[in-house]
Amino acid sequence: MTLEEVLIQKPTERAQCTGKALEEVLVSAKDNDSLTVGVYESAKVMNVDPDSVSFCVLATDEEFECDIALQIHFTLIQSFCFDNDISIVRVSDMQRLAEIVGDKAEQLEDAHCVLITNPADGSWEDPALEKLHLFCEESRRLNDWVPEISLPER
């Protein structure tokens, strides 16, 4: 999808398309072992190899909206992403995000931050990731620096 095609979409169509693209990218990245899940694990990856990070997803829900420590972590992660030109979005359904990135057998307690990384060999590319980058670029033009995306329901 080109930038022009993204721009002519109605806002509701754009949000639905972007939510589906995010889910596709997360599933594909998980299959290619290109996901980092968790605030602390993500911070480690960003500190050690920021060039490997392609995309960042921050998630919260009503239970954690008033968690000051988490909000401070989010602010630091957002700042790091802006400084390193990493596209970043928010989702408001942490449970749904955990379902997508987690294994059925394991219960993910810290799915507040998910990074999509590029493998060292560069063999993994996803067209849906390009859609997400275009969405983030357009959102920044509209002064929405951390746009919120709704993940599709199951």
TrEMBL record:
SUPFAM superfamilies: L30e-like
Xref: PANTHER family: GROWTH ARREST AND DNA DAMAGE 45 GAMMA LIKE-RELATED, GROWTH ARREST AND DNA DAMAGE-INDUCIBLE PROTEIN GADD45
Domain of life (superkingdom): Eukaryota
Similarity comment: Belongs to the GADD45 family.
Domain Ribosomal protein eL8/eL30/eS12/Gadd45: from-to ranges: 21-105
Xref: Gene3D superfamilies: 3.30.1330.30
Protein name: Growth arrest and DNA-damage-inducible, gamma b, tandem duplicate 1
GO cellular component: cytoplasm; nucleus
Pfam families per record: Ribosomal_L7Ae
